[in-house]
Amino acid sequence: MPDMLNGIAVAPCALALPVHGDAIEEPPFFLPQGMKAAAGAVVVEDDGRVWLVSPSNGFGGYRATFPKGRLDPGGNLQHTAVREVFEESGLLVRLDTFLLDVRRTQTYTRYYVGRRVEGSPAEMGWESQAVHLVPAARLHEIAVHPNDLAIIAAARERVLRDASRK
After folding, report:
1. Fewer Cβ neighbours under 10 Å: the N or C end of the chain?
2. Backbone angles phi, psi at 151, to 5 degrees
3. In this structure, are residues 158 and 113 in contact, taking their beta carbons and an 8 Å threshold?
4. Which residue has the higher pLDDT, 158 or 45?
5. Mind listing the pLDDT tens digit for each residue in 18-62?
6. What is the largest CA-CA distance in the chain?
């Protein structure tokens, strides 16, 4: 990894328990019966590449996927997304916007679009065995689990739309 990426240092976070950014507006979250609530983020760099994590031992049948995790009792979705990104990738993010809600295997997961503000993939937690930085156009080649298809489609549309505004 380089020391800097898109003008942001790639170094361990200075915060012990990262909680970053202001609350963003989002639609109501309706949890389907029998599902567990979860949250995650599609972390996009300014150059349009996206961070993915490889769960340890291919957990859940995922080779690579977007960081996410279950909501703690009394927690909120935005905090959960920031926490899970940090735990699984070593990256501290600022959430920019709501992306979509999607049914996973055991969870109904809210995804946000986030930007890295600090951190290093070398600081990923035990749940991940690797962290990848992937061009948005190649996400479907790396994150191949069927549960990720809707997330990839929404993320690619968002990244392409944001790139056209620059």
Report:
1. C
2. -70, -45
3. yes
4. 45
5. 555 568 999 999 999 999 999 999 999 999 999 999 988 655 667
6. 46
Task: Encode pLDDT of 76-115 as tens digits.
Answer: 999 999 999 999 999 999 999 999 999 988 899 999 999 9
Residue 61's pLDDT is what? Answer: 64
Helix (H) or strand (E) holding 41: strand 36-44
DSSP sequence for 72-137: PTT--HHHHHHHHHHHHHSEEEEEEEEEEEEE-SSEEEEEEEEEEEEE-GGG--TTEEEEEEEEGG
Residue 53: exposed, middle, or buried by beta-carbon count in 10 A (0-12, 13-18, 19+)? buried
Number of neighbours of residue 159 by Cβ within 10 angstroms: 21
Phi, psi (5° rounding) for residue 53?
Answer: -120, 150
Q: Are 39 and 125 in contact (CB under 8 A)?
A: no
- End-to-end CA distance of the chain, in Å? 26
Bridge partner residues of 100 (DSSP): 111
